[in-house]
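Lay summary. Proteins are chains of building blocks that fold into shapes, and those shapes determine what they do. In this project we predict the shape from the chain. Here is one chain we studied, written as its sequence of building blocks.
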Amino acid sequence: MLAASFTVSVRRVRDAEPAGMPMTALTVRPIEAGDRAAWDLLWNGYLVFYEEALPQHITEETWRRLLDPAVDPHGFVAVDAAGRLVGFVHYLFHASTWAIGPYCYLEDLFVDPAVRGGGVGAALIEAVYAAADRAGAERVYWMTQDHNATARKLYDRIGKLTPFIKYERR
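And here is the predicted shape, written in a compact code that computers can read:
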């Protein structure tokens, strides 16, 4: 299923423009091959934030999958009015034993720290919501670390905190 592009208006953040300035355009669209260099910078920032180091072959395979609309995961990027990539989101669909339609797992979300708090993360999540709706997904869900206070402020506004605790194999 091909994802759609759309343009949204978001507030210019922090020092880029004084408070009260007009909204600026942000385009959210599917990831494209030409995004690789900018995506790499954001991806590396994401890995640093989560204190993770991945072998290069995993990054290469992730990128290959993101460009293939026939396989999971899928991805969107947020592009500001100047044409800079300022964020990305990756998501995938999977079957569930609790629903007929698929579930949508939002696996990765990262916004350039220079523009956080300006609506980019919300726009990327809304793009995933729209893709999930088009796919007939019965649920969209994601996880974050409990100490990620900045992201949790957004998630508390646009999502619902669940009581589940994540476990992993030792």
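What the prediction tells us: Strands lie at 6-10, 24-30, 74-80, 85-94, 103-111, 139-141.
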